[in-house]
Amino acid sequence: MPDSAPDLTLTLHPRITDIAAADWDACAGGGNPFVSHAFLAALEASGSATGDRGWLPQHLALRGPGGQLLACAPCYAKSHSQGEYVFDWSWADAFERAGGSYYPKLQICAPFSPVPGPRLLVRPGSGLRPEALGQALVQACGELGLSSVHITFCEEAEWRALGETGWLRRLGTQFHWHNRGYASFDDFLGALNSRKRKAVKRERRDAAASGFTLKTLRGHEITPRHWQAFHRFYRATTDKKWGRSAYLTQRFWPMLGEALGDRVVLMVAERDGEPVAGALNLLGAEALYGRNWGAVADAPFLHFELCYYRAIDFAIEHRLPRVEAGAQGEHKIQRGYLPSPTYSAHWIAHQGLRRAVDDFLARERPAMEREMAALATMSPFRQEGCEAKGEA
Predict the structure, then answer these.
(1) Is 198 in contact with 296 (CB distance < 8 Å)?
(2) What is the DSSP string of 268-309?
(3) Which H or E run contains 267?
(4) Nearest to residue 255, comparing CAs of 289, 287, 230?
(5) For 216-229, what is each residue's pLDDT tens digit?
(6) 127 Cβ contact partners less than 8 Å away, ≥ 6 residues apart
(7) d(CA 135, CA 354)
Protein backbone atom coordinates (compact mmCIF):
# COMPACT_ATOMS: atom_id res chain seq x y z
CA MET A 1 0.00 0.00 0.00
CA PRO A 2 1.71 3.25 -1.08
CA ASP A 3 2.51 5.65 1.79
CA SER A 4 1.03 8.53 -0.20
CA ALA A 5 -2.30 6.71 -0.45
CA PRO A 6 -2.88 4.89 2.86
CA ASP A 7 -6.45 3.94 2.03
CA LEU A 8 -5.42 1.84 -0.97
CA THR A 9 -4.98 -1.93 -1.00
CA LEU A 10 -2.29 -3.41 -3.26
CA THR A 11 -2.70 -6.91 -4.65
CA LEU A 12 -0.80 -8.92 -7.29
CA HIS A 13 -2.57 -11.35 -9.59
CA PRO A 14 -1.04 -14.37 -11.42
CA ARG A 15 -3.77 -14.25 -14.09
CA ILE A 16 -5.31 -11.28 -15.86
CA THR A 17 -8.67 -13.06 -15.59
CA ASP A 18 -8.49 -12.65 -11.79
CA ILE A 19 -9.41 -9.02 -12.48
CA ALA A 20 -12.78 -8.33 -14.08
CA ALA A 21 -12.43 -7.15 -17.67
CA ALA A 22 -14.81 -4.23 -17.13
CA ASP A 23 -12.82 -3.02 -14.13
CA TRP A 24 -9.46 -3.34 -15.89
CA ASP A 25 -10.67 -1.57 -19.04
CA ALA A 26 -12.25 1.20 -16.98
CA CYS A 27 -8.68 2.02 -15.91
CA ALA A 28 -7.00 1.26 -19.24
CA GLY A 29 -9.47 3.22 -21.37
CA GLY A 30 -10.24 2.27 -24.96
CA GLY A 31 -7.50 4.12 -26.78
CA ASN A 32 -4.70 1.56 -26.90
CA PRO A 33 -5.59 -2.10 -27.58
CA PHE A 34 -2.26 -3.40 -26.26
CA VAL A 35 -3.18 -2.70 -22.64
CA SER A 36 -6.75 -3.94 -22.99
CA HIS A 37 -7.90 -6.88 -20.90
CA ALA A 38 -8.74 -8.78 -24.10
CA PHE A 39 -5.23 -8.50 -25.57
CA LEU A 40 -3.46 -9.45 -22.35
CA ALA A 41 -5.88 -12.34 -21.74
CA ALA A 42 -5.24 -13.71 -25.25
CA LEU A 43 -1.50 -13.71 -24.56
CA GLU A 44 -1.99 -15.74 -21.39
CA ALA A 45 -4.72 -18.09 -22.65
CA SER A 46 -2.69 -18.92 -25.78
CA GLY A 47 0.37 -19.88 -23.75
CA SER A 48 2.42 -16.98 -25.14
CA ALA A 49 2.99 -14.93 -21.96
CA THR A 50 3.19 -17.49 -19.15
CA GLY A 51 5.53 -18.40 -16.35
CA ASP A 52 7.01 -21.42 -18.12
CA ARG A 53 8.12 -19.09 -20.93
CA GLY A 54 9.73 -16.60 -18.58
CA TRP A 55 6.72 -14.27 -18.35
CA LEU A 56 5.13 -14.86 -14.94
CA PRO A 57 2.07 -12.58 -14.65
CA GLN A 58 2.02 -10.45 -11.51
CA HIS A 59 -0.59 -7.89 -12.50
CA LEU A 60 -0.83 -5.06 -10.02
CA ALA A 61 -4.14 -3.77 -8.71
CA LEU A 62 -4.85 -0.86 -6.39
CA ARG A 63 -8.29 -0.80 -4.80
CA GLY A 64 -10.03 1.81 -2.71
CA PRO A 65 -11.71 1.29 0.68
CA GLY A 66 -14.84 -0.03 -0.98
CA GLY A 67 -12.94 -2.56 -3.08
CA GLN A 68 -13.28 -0.67 -6.35
CA LEU A 69 -10.34 -1.04 -8.73
CA LEU A 70 -8.80 2.42 -8.99
CA ALA A 71 -5.58 1.62 -10.84
CA CYS A 72 -3.70 -1.31 -12.33
CA ALA A 73 -0.65 -2.20 -14.40
CA PRO A 74 0.29 -5.16 -16.64
CA CYS A 75 3.21 -6.71 -14.75
CA TYR A 76 5.42 -9.75 -15.33
CA ALA A 77 8.22 -11.29 -13.29
CA LYS A 78 10.78 -11.92 -16.04
CA SER A 79 13.57 -14.50 -16.00
CA HIS A 80 15.13 -13.07 -19.18
CA SER A 81 15.04 -9.92 -21.34
CA GLN A 82 13.56 -11.35 -24.51
CA GLY A 83 10.48 -9.89 -26.19
CA GLU A 84 10.88 -6.40 -24.69
CA TYR A 85 12.61 -4.26 -27.38
CA VAL A 86 14.24 -1.96 -24.80
CA PHE A 87 17.53 -3.73 -24.39
CA ASP A 88 19.07 -4.15 -20.94
CA TRP A 89 21.24 -7.21 -21.54
CA SER A 90 24.41 -5.22 -20.87
CA TRP A 91 23.01 -4.13 -17.49
CA ALA A 92 22.18 -7.71 -16.61
CA ASP A 93 25.59 -8.97 -17.76
CA ALA A 94 27.48 -6.36 -15.76
CA PHE A 95 25.49 -7.08 -12.60
CA GLU A 96 25.84 -10.84 -12.95
CA ARG A 97 29.63 -10.56 -13.49
CA ALA A 98 29.82 -8.46 -10.34
CA GLY A 99 28.09 -11.23 -8.39
CA GLY A 100 24.55 -9.88 -8.42
CA SER A 101 21.29 -11.47 -9.61
CA TYR A 102 19.54 -9.32 -12.20
CA TYR A 103 16.83 -11.87 -12.90
CA PRO A 104 14.04 -12.13 -12.06
CA LYS A 105 12.98 -8.53 -12.62
CA LEU A 106 9.56 -6.86 -12.78
CA GLN A 107 8.51 -5.80 -16.28
CA ILE A 108 5.57 -3.47 -16.90
CA CYS A 109 4.71 -3.67 -20.59
CA ALA A 110 2.56 -5.08 -23.35
CA PRO A 111 4.46 -8.34 -23.99
CA PHE A 112 6.19 -8.74 -27.37
CA SER A 113 4.80 -5.37 -28.46
CA PRO A 114 7.09 -2.34 -28.89
CA VAL A 115 4.05 -0.08 -28.93
CA PRO A 116 4.00 3.17 -26.93
CA GLY A 117 1.02 3.69 -24.69
CA PRO A 118 -0.16 3.99 -21.10
CA ARG A 119 1.35 1.57 -18.60
CA LEU A 120 0.13 3.04 -15.29
CA LEU A 121 -3.58 2.60 -15.79
CA VAL A 122 -5.68 4.88 -13.59
CA ARG A 123 -9.47 5.03 -13.45
CA PRO A 124 -10.66 8.54 -14.43
CA GLY A 125 -11.83 10.52 -11.44
CA SER A 126 -9.88 8.41 -8.93
CA GLY A 127 -7.50 11.25 -8.13
CA LEU A 128 -4.50 8.93 -8.28
CA ARG A 129 -1.30 10.11 -9.93
CA PRO A 130 1.32 8.00 -11.74
CA GLU A 131 3.66 8.47 -8.79
CA ALA A 132 1.34 6.43 -6.57
CA LEU A 133 1.48 3.50 -8.97
CA GLY A 134 5.24 3.89 -9.23
CA GLN A 135 5.52 3.65 -5.47
CA ALA A 136 3.26 0.59 -5.48
CA LEU A 137 5.47 -1.09 -8.09
CA VAL A 138 8.58 -0.48 -5.98
CA GLN A 139 6.76 -2.02 -3.02
CA ALA A 140 5.74 -5.03 -5.12
CA CYS A 141 9.30 -5.43 -6.35
CA GLY A 142 10.54 -5.62 -2.76
CA GLU A 143 7.83 -8.04 -1.66
CA LEU A 144 8.64 -10.35 -4.58
CA GLY A 145 12.38 -10.13 -3.99
CA LEU A 146 13.13 -8.86 -7.50
CA SER A 147 16.09 -6.77 -8.62
CA SER A 148 14.37 -3.96 -10.46
CA VAL A 149 11.27 -2.52 -12.13
CA HIS A 150 11.15 -1.61 -15.83
CA ILE A 151 8.28 0.30 -17.43
CA THR A 152 8.84 0.18 -21.18
CA PHE A 153 7.20 2.19 -23.98
CA CYS A 154 5.27 4.28 -21.47
CA GLU A 155 3.71 7.66 -22.18
CA GLU A 156 5.82 10.80 -21.87
CA ALA A 157 3.71 12.12 -18.99
CA GLU A 158 4.30 8.90 -17.02
CA TRP A 159 8.02 9.07 -17.86
CA ARG A 160 8.33 12.63 -16.59
CA ALA A 161 6.29 12.01 -13.45
CA LEU A 162 8.35 8.95 -12.50
CA GLY A 163 11.59 10.80 -13.24
CA GLU A 164 10.62 13.47 -10.74
CA THR A 165 10.43 10.79 -8.03
CA GLY A 166 13.88 9.38 -8.79
CA TRP A 167 13.25 6.75 -11.46
CA LEU A 168 15.86 6.44 -14.20
CA ARG A 169 14.65 7.61 -17.60
CA ARG A 170 15.58 6.22 -21.00
CA LEU A 171 14.89 7.54 -24.50
CA GLY A 172 14.41 5.50 -27.65
CA THR A 173 13.16 6.16 -31.16
CA GLN A 174 10.62 4.75 -33.58
CA PHE A 175 9.23 5.89 -36.91
CA HIS A 176 5.64 7.12 -37.10
CA TRP A 177 3.55 8.48 -39.96
CA HIS A 178 1.44 11.54 -39.15
CA ASN A 179 -1.76 12.43 -40.95
CA ARG A 180 -1.72 16.10 -41.94
CA GLY A 181 -5.37 16.02 -42.92
CA TYR A 182 -4.77 14.17 -46.20
CA ALA A 183 -7.86 13.48 -48.28
CA SER A 184 -6.23 10.61 -50.20
CA PHE A 185 -2.95 8.80 -50.72
CA ASP A 186 -2.32 11.06 -53.71
CA ASP A 187 -2.76 14.03 -51.40
CA PHE A 188 -0.06 12.56 -49.15
CA LEU A 189 2.19 12.02 -52.19
CA GLY A 190 1.79 15.66 -53.03
CA ALA A 191 3.49 16.56 -49.76
CA LEU A 192 6.65 14.64 -50.73
CA ASN A 193 9.52 16.01 -52.73
CA SER A 194 9.61 14.97 -56.37
CA ARG A 195 12.24 12.25 -56.10
CA LYS A 196 10.63 10.52 -53.14
CA ARG A 197 7.16 10.86 -54.64
CA LYS A 198 8.29 9.11 -57.80
CA ALA A 199 9.99 6.38 -55.78
CA VAL A 200 6.85 5.64 -53.75
CA LYS A 201 4.70 5.56 -56.90
CA ARG A 202 7.12 3.12 -58.50
CA GLU A 203 7.16 0.86 -55.46
CA ARG A 204 3.36 0.74 -55.29
CA ARG A 205 3.12 0.13 -59.02
CA ASP A 206 5.64 -2.73 -58.89
CA ALA A 207 3.90 -4.32 -55.89
CA ALA A 208 0.55 -4.14 -57.68
CA ALA A 209 2.09 -5.77 -60.75
CA SER A 210 3.45 -8.71 -58.75
CA GLY A 211 0.55 -10.96 -59.73
CA PHE A 212 -0.67 -11.26 -56.14
CA THR A 213 -4.12 -10.16 -55.04
CA LEU A 214 -3.71 -7.53 -52.33
CA LYS A 215 -6.43 -7.12 -49.69
CA THR A 216 -7.11 -5.26 -46.47
CA LEU A 217 -9.18 -7.43 -44.14
CA ARG A 218 -10.80 -6.50 -40.86
CA GLY A 219 -12.51 -8.38 -38.05
CA HIS A 220 -14.78 -11.17 -39.28
CA GLU A 221 -13.24 -10.96 -42.77
CA ILE A 222 -10.15 -12.66 -41.33
CA THR A 223 -10.86 -16.40 -41.41
CA PRO A 224 -9.16 -19.37 -39.70
CA ARG A 225 -7.20 -20.08 -42.88
CA HIS A 226 -5.80 -16.57 -42.75
CA TRP A 227 -4.64 -17.11 -39.16
CA GLN A 228 -3.09 -20.48 -40.02
CA ALA A 229 -1.23 -18.87 -42.88
CA PHE A 230 -0.22 -15.88 -40.81
CA HIS A 231 1.43 -18.06 -38.19
CA ARG A 232 3.55 -19.56 -40.98
CA PHE A 233 4.48 -16.03 -42.07
CA TYR A 234 5.33 -15.08 -38.49
CA ARG A 235 7.52 -18.15 -38.05
CA ALA A 236 9.26 -17.46 -41.36
CA THR A 237 10.19 -14.01 -40.06
CA THR A 238 11.33 -15.09 -36.59
CA ASP A 239 13.30 -18.05 -37.91
CA LYS A 240 15.05 -15.87 -40.48
CA LYS A 241 15.83 -12.99 -38.13
CA TRP A 242 16.64 -14.72 -34.89
CA GLY A 243 16.79 -18.46 -35.55
CA ARG A 244 14.89 -19.30 -32.39
CA SER A 245 11.44 -20.28 -31.27
CA ALA A 246 8.74 -17.71 -31.89
CA TYR A 247 7.35 -15.79 -28.94
CA LEU A 248 3.71 -16.09 -29.98
CA THR A 249 1.99 -19.44 -30.24
CA GLN A 250 -0.23 -20.57 -33.09
CA ARG A 251 -3.26 -20.36 -30.80
CA PHE A 252 -2.68 -16.66 -30.15
CA TRP A 253 -3.79 -15.33 -33.54
CA PRO A 254 -7.38 -16.65 -33.67
CA MET A 255 -7.80 -15.78 -29.99
CA LEU A 256 -6.67 -12.25 -30.78
CA GLY A 257 -9.09 -12.02 -33.69
CA GLU A 258 -12.00 -13.23 -31.59
CA ALA A 259 -11.14 -10.99 -28.64
CA LEU A 260 -10.51 -7.74 -30.52
CA GLY A 261 -12.84 -8.11 -33.52
CA ASP A 262 -12.81 -5.10 -35.83
CA ARG A 263 -9.75 -3.68 -34.08
CA VAL A 264 -7.70 -6.31 -35.95
CA VAL A 265 -6.64 -5.23 -39.45
CA LEU A 266 -4.74 -7.64 -41.72
CA MET A 267 -3.09 -6.58 -44.95
CA VAL A 268 -2.67 -9.73 -47.03
CA ALA A 269 -1.31 -10.87 -50.38
CA GLU A 270 -2.89 -13.94 -51.98
CA ARG A 271 -1.86 -16.15 -54.88
CA ASP A 272 -4.59 -18.30 -56.42
CA GLY A 273 -6.72 -17.63 -53.37
CA GLU A 274 -4.05 -18.69 -50.87
CA PRO A 275 -2.41 -16.16 -48.51
CA VAL A 276 1.33 -15.85 -49.11
CA ALA A 277 2.20 -12.70 -47.12
CA GLY A 278 0.61 -10.55 -44.47
CA ALA A 279 1.01 -7.57 -42.14
CA LEU A 280 -0.93 -7.51 -38.88
CA ASN A 281 -2.17 -4.23 -37.39
CA LEU A 282 -4.28 -3.31 -34.38
CA LEU A 283 -6.58 -0.30 -34.45
CA GLY A 284 -6.57 2.19 -31.60
CA ALA A 285 -8.56 5.35 -31.05
CA GLU A 286 -5.92 7.59 -32.63
CA ALA A 287 -3.51 5.27 -34.42
CA LEU A 288 -3.10 2.15 -36.49
CA TYR A 289 -0.38 0.04 -34.89
CA GLY A 290 1.68 -2.16 -37.20
CA ARG A 291 2.85 -5.27 -35.37
CA ASN A 292 3.88 -8.40 -37.28
CA TRP A 293 4.90 -9.14 -40.84
CA GLY A 294 5.82 -12.30 -42.67
CA ALA A 295 5.78 -13.99 -46.06
CA VAL A 296 6.38 -17.33 -47.76
CA ALA A 297 6.66 -15.69 -51.19
CA ASP A 298 8.43 -12.59 -52.36
CA ALA A 299 7.83 -9.79 -54.84
CA PRO A 300 9.39 -6.36 -55.34
CA PHE A 301 8.29 -3.93 -52.63
CA LEU A 302 5.57 -6.25 -51.30
CA HIS A 303 6.76 -5.65 -47.74
CA PHE A 304 6.54 -1.87 -48.14
CA GLU A 305 3.09 -2.10 -49.74
CA LEU A 306 1.54 -4.29 -47.05
CA CYS A 307 3.29 -2.82 -44.01
CA TYR A 308 3.50 0.89 -44.80
CA TYR A 309 1.49 2.09 -47.77
CA ARG A 310 -1.72 0.18 -47.06
CA ALA A 311 -1.48 1.33 -43.45
CA ILE A 312 -1.35 4.92 -44.68
CA ASP A 313 -4.33 4.24 -46.97
CA PHE A 314 -6.27 2.87 -44.00
CA ALA A 315 -5.36 5.79 -41.74
CA ILE A 316 -6.41 8.36 -44.33
CA GLU A 317 -9.70 6.57 -45.01
CA HIS A 318 -10.51 6.32 -41.30
CA ARG A 319 -9.12 9.77 -40.42
CA LEU A 320 -6.58 8.42 -37.95
CA PRO A 321 -3.94 10.89 -36.76
CA ARG A 322 -1.01 8.51 -37.21
CA VAL A 323 0.42 5.10 -38.05
CA GLU A 324 2.98 3.57 -35.71
CA ALA A 325 5.04 1.04 -37.64
CA GLY A 326 6.86 -0.72 -34.81
CA ALA A 327 10.50 -0.89 -33.83
CA GLN A 328 13.60 -0.03 -35.85
CA GLY A 329 13.91 0.58 -39.59
CA GLU A 330 15.42 3.81 -40.88
CA HIS A 331 14.13 2.81 -44.32
CA LYS A 332 10.70 3.90 -43.08
CA ILE A 333 11.76 7.54 -43.21
CA GLN A 334 11.79 7.64 -47.00
CA ARG A 335 8.22 6.36 -46.95
CA GLY A 336 6.90 9.16 -44.75
CA TYR A 337 7.49 7.67 -41.30
CA LEU A 338 9.51 10.16 -39.26
CA PRO A 339 11.50 9.63 -36.05
CA SER A 340 9.49 9.89 -32.83
CA PRO A 341 10.77 9.46 -29.27
CA THR A 342 9.82 6.53 -27.07
CA TYR A 343 10.14 6.41 -23.31
CA SER A 344 10.93 3.93 -20.56
CA ALA A 345 11.46 4.29 -16.82
CA HIS A 346 13.58 2.08 -14.56
CA TRP A 347 13.94 1.57 -10.81
CA ILE A 348 16.92 -0.49 -9.60
CA ALA A 349 17.29 -1.65 -6.01
CA HIS A 350 21.07 -2.13 -5.91
CA GLN A 351 22.67 1.28 -5.47
CA GLY A 352 25.89 0.41 -7.30
CA LEU A 353 24.05 -0.87 -10.38
CA ARG A 354 21.67 2.06 -10.18
CA ARG A 355 24.53 4.57 -10.25
CA ALA A 356 26.17 2.80 -13.20
CA VAL A 357 22.94 2.70 -15.21
CA ASP A 358 22.15 6.31 -14.32
CA ASP A 359 25.55 7.37 -15.64
CA PHE A 360 25.01 5.37 -18.83
CA LEU A 361 21.57 6.88 -19.43
CA ALA A 362 22.83 10.40 -18.77
CA ARG A 363 25.16 9.91 -21.76
CA GLU A 364 22.72 7.92 -23.88
CA ARG A 365 19.81 10.42 -23.77
CA PRO A 366 21.57 13.35 -25.46
CA ALA A 367 23.12 10.95 -27.97
CA MET A 368 19.64 9.68 -28.81
CA GLU A 369 18.33 13.23 -29.17
CA ARG A 370 21.17 14.04 -31.58
CA GLU A 371 20.44 10.88 -33.55
CA MET A 372 16.75 11.74 -33.88
CA ALA A 373 17.65 15.25 -35.03
CA ALA A 374 19.99 13.82 -37.65
CA LEU A 375 17.36 11.34 -38.83
CA ALA A 376 14.79 14.12 -39.14
CA THR A 377 16.99 15.79 -41.76
CA MET A 378 16.34 12.77 -44.00
CA SER A 379 12.64 13.66 -44.23
CA PRO A 380 11.10 13.00 -47.67
CA PHE A 381 8.64 15.85 -47.29
CA ARG A 382 8.83 18.88 -49.54
CA GLN A 383 10.59 21.80 -47.92
CA GLU A 384 9.25 25.33 -48.22
CA GLY A 385 10.90 27.09 -51.12
CA CYS A 386 12.17 23.91 -52.78
CA GLU A 387 9.45 23.87 -55.44
CA ALA A 388 10.55 27.24 -56.70
CA LYS A 389 14.05 25.83 -57.09
CA GLY A 390 12.77 22.89 -59.10
CA GLU A 391 13.44 20.37 -56.33
CA ALA A 392 9.85 19.38 -55.53
Answers:
(1) no
(2) EEEETTEEEEEEEEEE-SSEEEEEEEEESS--TTHHHIIIII
(3) strand 264-271
(4) 230
(5) 999 999 999 999 99
(6) none
(7) 17
